[in-house]
């Protein structure tokens, strides 16, 4: 009886020890899993063109990490996106997922079959230039570390993506860029009078990034700039002179230019 009691006590002690250490073991496993993956958020923004609206069917994105492609689904009931709305600080998250640690070398925006613009109040359907035009593949250079989150942006340049092939026939061949929010900067300002509705271009060493102002407020913002000296070119549609401003930008901040007053052209 004493031997049985001792064996029972020994088994009970082992059970208590196992129960005590189990949470720590599970937590350790969870931490190991967390360290083995990072989280990537993929956001879409637009460099607008000369039309009222531009609608694109967005299916999601794809990232290549350590040579392997990982699909990132755009989870929504309606996948049509008016990319013309994605300006002046507005972005759309088209996917997020955990991914393995390692080197991310490529990011691709995946588009469906439907694409059109609204011009002068009329819908104009577009044609993809070729079968490859439904994929906007861009180089990426990101080392993903475990337990960290990354915000990556795809800037779809509609002004350079759409070509008028013939009368009321438009072709679409996507042009854009991709950048990580970390280590980049932005500029913002307000152009007056806001009715001028100008095009805004930030130019540095032959690289040009563009946007338009908010029609109601005259405000604008351009994201994804590297640190350095830029020229800001403001081109009103009519009635006002072009304006050129030299300015520096600094990393990890929004460089506010304040109000910019345009000079009217005498009739």
Q: Care to describe what's here?
A:
It is a single chain. The N and C termini lie far apart (113 Å). Helix content is 14%, strand content 56%. It has 267 residues and is mainly β. The N terminus is likely disordered. The strands form 4 sheets. Strands 2, 3, 4, 6, 7, 8, 10 and 11 form an 8-stranded mixed sheet that branches. A 4-stranded mixed sheet has the order 5-1-9-12. It has 3 domains: 35 residues; 146 residues; 85 residues, Immunoglobulins (Immunoglobulin-like).
Query: What gyration radius follows from the Cα positions, in whole Å?
Result: 26 Å
Number of domains: 3
The number of helices is: 2
Uncertain runs are: 1-9
End-to-end Cα distance: 113 Å
Beta percentage is over 45%
Order of helices and strands: HEEEEEEEEEHEEEEEEEEEE
The backbone outline, from C-alpha atoms, is globular
The residue fraction in helices comes out at 10-25%
- Structural class, by secondary structure, is mainly beta
Describe the secondary-structure layout.
Layout: H1 2-35, E1 37-47, E2 53-65, E3 68-73, E4 80-82, E5 92-100, E6 102-119, E7 122-128, E8 135-144, E9 149-157, H2 158-161, E10 162-166, E11 169-172, E12 176-180, E13 185-192, E14 199-204, E15 207-212, E16 219-225, E17 228-235, E18 243-249, E19 254-261
Parallel strand pairs: 1-9, 7-11, 13-19
Antiparallel strand pairs: 1-5, 2-3, 2-4, 2-6, 6-7, 6-8, 9-12, 10-11, 13-16, 14-15, 14-17, 17-18
């Amino acid at each position: 009886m004493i031997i049985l009691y001792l064996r029972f006590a020994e088994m009970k002690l082992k059970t208590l020890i196992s129960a005590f250490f189990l949470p720590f073991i599970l937590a350790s496993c969870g931490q190991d899993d967390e360290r083995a993956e990072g989280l990537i958020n993929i956001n879409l923004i637009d460099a607008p063109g000369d039309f009222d609206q531009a609608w694109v069917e967005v299916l999601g994105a794809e990232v290549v990490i350590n040579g392997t492609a990982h699909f990132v689904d755009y989870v929504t009931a309606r996948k049509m996106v008016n990319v013309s709305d994605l300006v002046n600080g507005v972005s759309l998250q088209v996917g997020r997922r955990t991914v393995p640690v390692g080197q991310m070398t490529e990011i691709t925006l995946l588009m469906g079959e439907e694409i059109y613009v609204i011009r002068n109040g009329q819908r104009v359907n577009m044609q993809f230039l070729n079968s490859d035009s439904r994929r906007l593949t861009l180089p990426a250079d990101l080392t993903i570390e475990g337990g960290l989150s990354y915000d990556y942006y795809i800037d779809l340049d509609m002004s350079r993506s759409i070509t008028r092939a013939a009368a009321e026939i438009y072709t679409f061949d996507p042009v854009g860029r991709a950048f990580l929010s970390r280590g980049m900067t932005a500029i913002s300002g307000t152009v007056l009078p806001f009715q001028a509705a100008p095009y805004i271009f930030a130019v540095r060493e032959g690289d040009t990034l563009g946007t338009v102002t908010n029609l109601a407020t005259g405000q604008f913002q351009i994201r994804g700039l590297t640190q350095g000296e830029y020229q800001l070119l403001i081109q009103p549609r009519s009635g006002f002179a072009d304006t050129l401003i030299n300015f520096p930008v600094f990393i990890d901040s929004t460089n506010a230019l304040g109000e910019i007053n345009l000079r009217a052209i005498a009739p």
